[in-house]
Write a structure and sequence with these properties.
536 residues; mainly alpha; two-stranded antiparallel sheet; disordered N terminus
Length: 536
């Protein structure tokens, strides 16, 4: 098995009877406890148990891509990472999807949201699958005398915090489940965004020094914890009403100065099938693992790679894929943020293809084709039409070094956290908080840009608006955009308009309550203590 082993993933699923998300929000998870001897005989380091929770962020279930750990949810549509992309990227100004699958239209047009949309339910359910799973395993680990007990518990507490982070960010409230909760059939009370924030913050602060600086690729370490803390503090003003940009900057500094990470020399290597063994791994702080044989999923980077390809207009084998799903394209709001050869903003496909910025060249337009039916349009007049808008070939299943054979499922790991993001976060926090060094901030931003052959900027260019656009250019399709726009006050409302926002081709204002997603009806049905977010 590639990288962090999931060898015991299926075996341990038969030992653990875990709750099925929102249907059991009123109860504690049930478990079938093993004796210490039975558990340690099968898995002396408990890596198999922990790997199941790691896998819950990218896989749908224990028995292959057609299985699901959240009963009632579609195995292909509902994995955690797929939900992050759907809710963070399709709802914002970057990528759009053309399939229109019973609710997907509402995400891609940022319109007509309600509590019945299955894609809101999918992510909510994944949170409440992962959290109880962590609680159960923490309780089990507490029973056993193993040398790495604190490390294992800390990894699980990080994964629980990561799940809660998406609850805080996307829904703003929910039920707080701890491993110490008494067993009861009474509905648990609703916890506010501030209460959830405080819990996650306290958890991460407590485990920061209980994890080593590095463990192994694909596992949580001290710097992964720091990254989640930095993300939490970066958005604290949205989450709690109190800005904590100075604390976010401090944790960015820790990662930069103590983590030992460095920018990969080539941008494309970060999103290729061998990103776990190429120089990309030196930049990746935390990755969600993909493997075409042993951890198949329609919800990991397979969704990004295959969903952005189409045999009709592209040679998909060039990107290591054997299937093209013809789903995802960007709009001019996204690729129009790059500069052309003259330094102005891109306004045509050939300008984009001839930009000096390597990141700009990852949008597929096929503008040189002599067949007009295969040339993609710069303007997205119809978001359901494949050739309207440019698909992104940023994520690909082909190896960066050497050759590889096309596969139906992706081998490309998803870099949830990487150093370039830390550099851009540092720069934003330096401007917002007045602490840190703007000289260093400029150095970090230019390092990110120069890596992709984009021109250096000067200190007078370094504004919050520039950083927001640079995050767009650098972090396309990496699950950050909606959060960034909300933090900048440019998601809900009409201060920033993008194509198809509000269901209109040229965009229109949307309600500010769209800054949070509605609490799914199924969750409120399972627990009457849950209340709906304002506006829905």
């Amino acid at each position: 098995m590639k990288k962090f082993s999931l060898t015991n993933f299926g075996l341990f699923c038969s030992f653990l009877l875990l709750i099925g998300c929102t249907n059991d929000l009123n109860t504690d998870p049930k478990d079938q406890n093993l004796t210490e001897e039975q558990l340690l005989e099968v898995d002396p380091t408990l890596a198999g148990l922990v790997s199941k929770v790691y896998g819950s962020f990218a896989l749908s279930g224990a028995s292959g891509p057609g299985s699901t750990d959240t009963p009632g949810d579609d195995a292909g549509e509902s994995p955690f990472l797929r939900g992050i992309i759907n809710l963070q990227d399709f709802t914002a100004d970057d990528m759009k999807n053309r399939w229109g699958d019973n609710g997907l239209d509402q995400l891609t047009t940022t319109s007509d949201w309600d509590e019945n949309n299955k894609f809101f339910r999918y992510l909510y359910n994944r949170v409440y699958y992962t959290v109880p799973q962590c609680n159960l395993l923490i309780n089990q680990v507490n029973q056993y005398d193993i040398s790495n007990k604190e490390q294992v518990k800390s990894e699980l507490r990080f994964l629980r915090s990561l799940a809660y982070f998406y609850l805080i960010d996307c829904f703003g409230k929910g039920v707080l489940l701890r491993e110490t909760d008494p067993v009861t059939s009474d509905p648990k009370p609703e916890s506010s965004r501030l209460q959830l924030f405080n819990f996650v913050e306290s958890e991460l602060l407590d485990i920061e020094d209980k994890l080593p600086n590095r463990i192994s690729y694909g596992r949580a370490n001290k710097n992964v914890v720091r990254m989640l803390l930095a993300k939490l503090y970066l958005n604290a003003e949205v989450y709690t009403g109190s800005p904590k940009y100075d604390k976010a900057l401090q944790y960015c500094e820790k990662i930069i100065n103590e983590g030992g990470y460095q920018l990969a020399p080539n941008f494309v290597s970060l999103f290729s099938g061998d990103n776990d063994v190429s120089t990309a791994k030196d930049e990746i702080i935390y990755a969600l693992i993909a493997d075409p044989l042993n951890s198949q999923s329609y919800g990991n980077t397979t969704y990004l790679v295959n969903g952005s390809l189409n045999n009709d207009t592209m040679v998909i084998n060039d990107f290591g894929a054997s299937e093209g799903w013809a789903g995802h394209r960007a709009t001019k709001a996204w690729y129009g943020k790059f500069t052309n050869a003259s330094g102005g903003l891109v306004t045509t496909a050939d300008q984009l293809a001839n930009s000096s910025d390597d990141r700009a060249k990852l949008f597929w337009s096929n503008y040189l084709s002599t067949d007009p039916t295969k040339v993609h349009n710069f303007e997205m007049n119809d978001y359901k039409k494949w050739i309207d808008g440019f698909p992104s070939t940023k994520f690909r299943n082909s190896n960066f070094i050497g050759t590889s054979s096309p596969t139906g499922f992706s081998n490309t790991d998803f870099p949830l956290y990487r150093l370039a993001d830390v550099y851009l976060m540092y720069a934003e926090c330096a401007l917002r908080s007045g602490t840190g060094s703007t000289t260093l901030a400029l150095q970090y931003v230019n390092a990110v840009r120069n890596r992709s052959n984009a021109a250096s900027i000067t200190l007078s260019d370094l504004t919050l608006d520039f950083i927001l656009d640079e995050r767009a250019r650098e972090l396309n399709f990496e699950g950050h955009r909606r959060t960034d726009l909300v933090r900048y006050g440019r998601f809900g409302g009409g201060s920033y308009i993008w194509p198809w926002k509000g269901g209109v081709k040229d965009g229109t204002a949307i309600p500010t309550y769209y800054n949070l997603f509605p609490i799914p009806l199924s969750a409120r049905g399972a627990n009457p203590n849950l209340t709906q977010n304002d506006g829905y």
